[in-house]
Amino acid sequence: QSEDTINVCGQEYTKDEWTNVTPNILSKTSRKLHLHQSHPISIIRQRIENHFATFKALNRFEPTVTTKMNFDDLCIPADHPTRVKSDNYYINATNMLRAHTSAHQLQGLESGATKFLISGDVYRRDEIDSSHYPVFHQMEGLQYFDMDPEITAKQVQDDIASQAELAANTVQLVDDTLVKPENPIQDRHAPEAAQAVVAHLKHSLNSMVRALFKDEPNLQVRWIDAYFPFTSPSWEMEIFYQGEWLEICGCGIVRQDLMDAAGLQNKIGWAFGCGLERLSMVLFDIPDIRLFWSEDERFLSQFAAGEIVKFKPFSKFPPCLKDISFWLPEKDWNENNFCEIVRGVAGDIVENVTKIDDFTHPKTQKRSVCYRITYRSMDRNVTNEEINAIQEKVRSTVEEDLSVQLR
Ligand code: PHE
């Protein structure tokens, strides 16, 4: 491997000005948490796969995809903001670590299956807190029907009738999302056909959530309108957890251009993408997303294949807080770049990064920010010297790489 190339999942790529994957991130591509039988992420994957028992389960796609698969194939325009370098991990201008399992929708459609699930690790540059980590796992689901208003409705009814009763429990499902002009049925779809598939989608996801949460009597779930370039109409499903609504799933009716691209002009389908960490955090009571990556036996030994048990926290180690303030450069400031540096230097010892001050000097118009970094290990005590050394490294790297002026 030379200076100009980079090896990702066993393949050599030429680096260019888009390359922003880091060794820390690349080290996660071989972990495959969703395939470790007794890991919480895998237990949830298997639960969902068992629930959708007649779907073909595809869970071995590598996380390296082309930008065409991640964006273009999904009707995401060339200038769409989700493509920005600061939100994604690019291998180079045309290859990246997938940002969602939707990157494999077309492959799924081309596999010949009329209903399938795709699970895997996905990568996004993001903020740092207890529910955000640059790598997480998603499960994609897709099912399609014949596109003929009479046939579609009949197929949908028969399919729902063939399923077991919805788990009778008290999960509170709120859905007042009627199809609205801002979240429209596609021109190519007869309203009757689209409505039938929407009903099937909602039925499918509601029954999945009810099955998963059958022992959580007070869980609140809601549907809200959403937008995705590759579905219309589109929704999100959220669950109420620890005082806030957590998005667990995006979904909608698949854009017909995508069905066309797979040679399925006469079919109409729905798709969803669910975050497996969010579901696992709620089901297993796992308080911090970093725990999923722990190799500590005190974590791993608590779980067994097929079982959902409540996680018993081992003693929480004390945090160490450090503040960093600096003047921002005139241009090109991006918070995710800052978080990436903190992650790169501190690894999983960083628990949270929060901006605690943001000030613009009235005369010079120069902007100064202050971030509070919480360092805490999941499995041991950290020493002040060790954190000071990390903080020093963060300071010098930020100064050098982001052209800020430390205060
Ligand atoms: N890929 C979307 C995301 O990651 C979720 C999604 C999947 C939405 C399938 C619609 C259909 O947010």
From TrEMBL:
GO biological process: phenylalanyl-tRNA aminoacylation
Keyword field: Aminoacyl-tRNA synthetase, ATP-binding, Ligase, Mitochondrion, Nucleotide-binding, Protein biosynthesis, Transit peptide
Domain FDX-ACB: 315-407
Matches recorded under SUPFAM superfamilies: Anticodon-binding domain of PheRS, Class II aaRS and biotin synthetases
Chain ranges of the Aminoacyl-transfer RNA synthetases class-II family profile domain: 120-313
Subcellular location: Mitochondrion matrix
EC number(s) from the headed UniProt entry: 6.1.1.20
Catalytically driven reaction(s): tRNA(Phe) + L-phenylalanine + ATP = L-phenylalanyl-tRNA(Phe) + AMP + diphosphate + H(+)
Broadest EC class assigned to this enzyme: ligase
Chain segments annotated as transmembrane: none
An annotated Gene Ontology molecular function: ATP binding
Top-level taxon: Eukaryota
Primary residence: mitochondrion
GO CC term, one of those recorded: mitochondrial matrix
Family: Belongs to the class-II aminoacyl-tRNA synthetase family.
Role played: Is responsible for the charging of tRNA(Phe) with phenylalanine in mitochondrial translation.
Protein name as it appears in the record: Phenylalanine--tRNA ligase, mitochondrial
